[in-house]
Amino acid sequence: MTGRRRLPVATLLETAFERNLDAAESALRRVVEEGDFSLAGVRSARFRTYLERPSQMRTYLELIYPPRPRFPPGGRARLYEMWDAAPRGARIEVTESLILNALRRR
């Protein structure tokens, strides 16, 4: 949640996506180790979206291509609890990570 300072609420769980990510990373590692490609670079960035109220969280999550992330146990309740105590004008910040791997054919 954002106001004057950021307070983390929860890390959303994406179990199926994490399995797919692990498989993709293994495939990248394999083609580099086999010598067909070399790693040209890795870039990481964060993408931030700001929501005005907790009710927008559901809509935001529904826009994500499946598998969709979900709150860990107690995470949604913590969001509502923190929102009730938040100062006027506070917003919810959703931060997503993006990693780009570039390969070069040998």
Question: Beta fraction of the residues?
Answer: 25-35%
Question: Order of helices and strands, N to C?
Answer: HEHHE
Q: How do the strands line up in the largest sheet?
A: 1-2
- What would the average pLDDT be, to the nearest integer? 88
Strand count:
2
| Termini Cα gap | 46 Å
Helix vs. strand class: alpha+beta
Overall geometry comes to elongated
Q: In this structure, how is the largest beta sheet organized? A: 2 strands, antiparallel
Question: Descriptors for this entry?
Answer:
106 residues; alpha+beta; 2 strands; 36% helix
Give a short summary of the structure.
The chain is of the alpha+beta class and 106 residues long. The chain has helices spanning 15-33, 55-62, 75-85; strands at residues 37-51, 92-105.
Structure in words:
The chain is of the alpha+beta class and 106 residues long. The chain has one domain. Helix content is 36%, strand content 27%. It is built from three helices and two strands, in the order αβααβ. The protein is elongated. The relative contact order is 0.32.
SSE order and pairing:
Blueprint: H1 15-33, E1 37-51, H2 55-62, H3 75-85, E2 92-105
Antiparallel strand pairs: 1-2
